[in-house]
Amino acid sequence: MARHIVASTSEIPPGSNKVVDIAGRDIVVFHVNGEFFALLNRCPHEGAPLEKAACVARLTSPEPGVYERSRVGEMLRCPWHGWEFDMRNGQSWFDPKRVKVRSYPVAVERGDELQKGPYVAETFPVHVEDSYVIVEV
Question: Where are the alpha helices (DSSP H) in the chain?
Fold first, then answer.
């Protein structure tokens, strides 16, 4: 795996991102909560640029009317259709095959035990060395 210097840390301020072309791939590097994450800049659903995605929090509800936010800024919401991805591993939590107008069996399960969706955005390891952000592809 080749190493590519993509930016200095100051080029990607906290809460922002930068798109780089590495080996013909558009890769977006995010700076969130002091960490850097790199993903292929393409939603696996219909190809929306993830650089324009909203960086949101994980929202859970332990009971009706009670909401808890965690991992603020680490979830990406696609700008075209609102699909959400975990910035740490690109995992989607949404399965489009289940979105139909018909009835389904209902079960009550804890949110952290739910099965993850099948779509995964491609991710790349990111390191910071001497104030330069380095992506491995």
Answer: none
What does each C-alpha distance from 126 to 66, 105, 136 come to in angstroms?
35, 42, 6
- Which fold, 3-136? Rieske Iron-sulfur Protein (2.102.10)
d(CA 95, CA 79): 17
What confidence score (pLDDT) does residue 13 get?
Answer: 93
Q: Is the pTM of this model over 0.70?
A: yes
pLDDT band for 112, please (50, 70, 90 cuts).
low
Residue 33: which residues within 8 A CB-CB, separation 6 or more?
Answer: 14, 72, 73, 74
Tell me the pLDDT band of 98, cut-offs 50, 70 and 90. very low
Cα–Cα distances in Å, from 67 out to 58, 60, 64, 112, 113?
A: 10, 6, 8, 14, 17
CA distances from 82 to 13, 39, 54, 115 (A): 24, 17, 9, 19
Question: Do 40 and 29 contact (CB within 8 A), yes or no?
Answer: no
Domains of the chain, residue spans: 3-136
